[in-house]
Each structure stands twice: as C-alpha cells, then as structure tokens.
Amino acid sequence: MSFNPTGTPNPYAAYPPAPAAAPVRRSKAVGPLLMIATITMGLMAGLFFAYDISVMPGLARTDDRTYVDAMQNFNALIDGNGLFGMVFIGALLAAAVAAFLEHRQGGRGAALWIGAAAVLYLVALMITFSVNIPLNNELAAAGDPARITDFSIVEKFRTTWETSNIVRTLVCTAALGFLARALVLHGRGTGSATMRPHGV
Q1: SS3 sequence of 6-42
Q2: Which of 29, 33, 65, 123 could join 98 via S-S bond, C-beta 3.0 to 4.6 A?
Q3: What's phi and psi for 177, nearest 5 deg?
Q4: Do the Cβ atoms of 44 and 94 come closer than 8 Å?
C-alpha cells in the first residue's frame, strides 16, 4: 500500500486509473443540416401563416369568380416554382438526416427534438397531399373562371381548405420551435468536451 504526502495510507493506490473514454467523432454536417431544416421550416410556417391572415381573408372579400381566378393563379405559380419545391421537400429531408446523424454521434436529446419536428412536418405534408392538393386540383379542373357557373368549390375552400391550412400553420410552427430547441442542444454539445473521465 502506498502513502500520500501526509504519511497516511492511500486507499485508492491499489486501483489503476480507469482508461479514458474514446472521443466521439462528430459529423460536421449536422450543424448545417440543422440550420437548413430550421430555415426551411420557418419559411413553410410563414407561407401557411400568410395565407391564414392575409390571402384567404382578402379573397373572402371578393366575389366567387375573383376568388377562383386568384386561387388558380396562386396555385399555378407555386406549382411551377422550383425554389418552393426545394423548400417544401428540403425541410423534411434536412430534418430527417440531421436527426439520424445527431443520434448516431450521441446527441440523443437534440436528435429527439429534430425527429419530433420531422414527424410534425410529415403530418403537415400528409394534410397537404390528402386535403389541400386535391382541392387545388378540383379548382384547376373547373377551368376558366369566366365560364364557370357552379361555384360550390369556393365554399369547400372557405371551410375545408382554410381549416386544414390553419392546422398546417400550427404544426409547422411547433416543428420550428422543436428545431430551435435542437439548435440550442446541438450548440451545447459541440461547445463542450465530447468525453469525460469515469467517475466525474
């Protein structure tokens, strides 16, 4: 048994020091992907929110023919916009990949928040493809607004389409909040040591 400088026995001398933990390799792609996911999610939430508070209330003040004409133009412009397509799909892809990489490198807390955000956005996409897009297609199939005689589609937009869009806004806003939380956790992880000695 060895003795410490004061001459008293050192009870821990018989135990060899524990080996240091292997450092965790951190992917440099997680940070940029998480930023992309947050920005694109914010853009989608903002787009849906703009429809909620300005576009749809504004159209409600017009006649049915103007309503159909305006919505047909809005949908055509969005459908043909490549940048919108990148944001629309990119929000999900960036979040999913970031969650996978963050979990693999040990950031399970941040990965959980990112994964939850991806699931919420997936819900928004399901609403879009099952409710909003079919109604948009029905509106487009109605043809030239100047020749339409049955405007029942307008009532579907004022009820079903607008309600589902509000849900999309809420879901995407919640997902954006989750990603913001993940950014904080990810920042703490990269700014601290990736390993600690046993027993500390």
Answers
A1: CCCECCCCCCCCCCCCCCCCCCCCHHHHHHHHHHHHH
A2: 33
A3: -65, -40
A4: no
Helix (H, G, I), strand (E, B) or coil at 3: strand
Give start and end residues of each alpha helix (H) in 51-151. Answer: 56-60, 64-79, 82-104, 108-127, 133-141
Could you give the CA distance from residue 119 to residue 123 in angstroms, rounded to a whole number?
Answer: 6
> Looking at the predicted structure, is the pLDDT value of residue 21 above 90?
no
The span from the CA of 184 to the CA of 5, in Å, is 45
Across 18-42, b (16+ Cβ under 10 Å) vs e yields: eeeeeeeebbeebbebbebbbbbbb
pLDDT at 2: 53
pLDDT digits (tens, 9 = 90+) for 85-119: 999 999 999 999 999 999 998 888 999 999 999 99
Q: What residues have CB less than 8 Å from 7, skipping those under 6 apart?
A: none
Tokens representing residue 114 in the block = 């990112």
Angle at 78 (CA atoms; ends 73, 80), nearest 5 degrees: 95
Nearest partner of 194 among 23, 17, 10, judged by Cα: 23
Q: Are 131 and 164 within 8 A, CB to CB?
A: yes
Measured between alpha carbons, how far is 30 from 12 in angstroms, rounded to an integer?
41
Model confidence at 7, pLDDT cuts 50, 70, 90, reads: low
The residues pairing with 183 across neighbouring beta strands, listed in sequence order, are: none
